[in-house]
Amino acid sequence: MKKFMIRGSCFAAIGLMLLYTLSFFYVRTNGYRSLDDMFKFYDMPDDIEVANLGSSHGAYGFDYENISGITGFNFALPGQSLYYDLQVLEEYSDKLSEGCVVVIPISYFSFDQNKISEDQTRWYYKILDYGSVYNHKLTDYVKIGLFPILGASLNAKYLIKDKPAVAFDIYWLYAFSGIDYDVEDVEAWKRDALGFLDFHNKVTAQGRNEEFNLPYLYGIIEYCQEHGFKPLLVTTPFTRYYNEVFTEEFYRDFHAKVTKIQEKYGIPYIDYSHDPRMTEDLGLFVDSNHLNAAGSKVFTKLLLSDLGLI
Fold it and tell me: Looking at the 3D structure of the chain, how many domains does it have?
């Protein structure tokens, strides 16, 4: 019996070592790093001077590449909640320089956005500590965070034949959906805006999301102030068609909430949602309220210039 237990322990140890070794090399392949938006976290610079958080408006709204004289990083991911904004900020704060400007995108749905989905949670085992993952599960952590080769399936092929480079298009969902609006097709932009309004109303109707989200927004601001960073609230540019579907009552309520936060913490807020320098140029948008690749470059330079950083 003793020999059997020793033999079993040896086989288990060998199996774990094999899983560890395969996972070690798998997560370093270009193929693995190209699988989703997490790829950017594997190539994060040090001494970041400007960083942004956020969900899709942040992910699609900021591009610091090829901006000389300043080091920026986009921590946003499509669908990222304020809870994960805070966890990501805490996890990677050692990458931020003293006095780093932390841009916190405030969209029309930020206060009421969906609570954390199970699918979204699975992403974060790759970049956060186990305890930081909301409703973490040991089985998911083992398969995704500890031994990712277990969840590789056909992607394990990258161990044999890797991609030549990391290649990921954050706009893949739009390409997959066939969304490519003609700048002259006004009706298409209006329909798109109404579709997002319908989504916004459905999320708002869930109720109680605001009381879940707000403490994490406060937590982000307080963490920044306690650690020598400069929090900045920003609403990214939207097209006129997106802005037109919201009522005056909505805007009064939205701006009242933002003003309350500003006064509570004494921090600035810059609203680009109606900025004529961008909102009228449909060529800068992929849909009614998200910037495209060209738009994100224009907006990032605009913001950094307005802040006096470039």
Answer: 1
